[in-house]
Amino acid sequence: MLGKKKTAAKNRIKNLFLGSSKFYGEKKNYYDVLICDEAHRLKKKGAYMYQGVSQVEDIINASRVSIFFVDDEQMIRPDDEGSVERIKKVCSDYTVSVYEVQLVAQFRCSGADGYINWLDHTLQIKDTANYDGWDDGDFEFALFDDPHELYNKIHKLNENGMNARVLAGFAWPWTLDGNDDAQIDDVVIPECKFQKPWNSRKNQQTWATDPQKIDQIGCIHTSQGLEFDYVGVIIGNDLRFNVKNHTIYASEKDYFDKTGKKGLKNNPDALTMYVKRIYKVLMSRGVKGCYVYCRDENLRNYLKDRAPKAKQQP
Question: Are 181 and 265 members of one domain?
Answer without folding.
Answer: yes
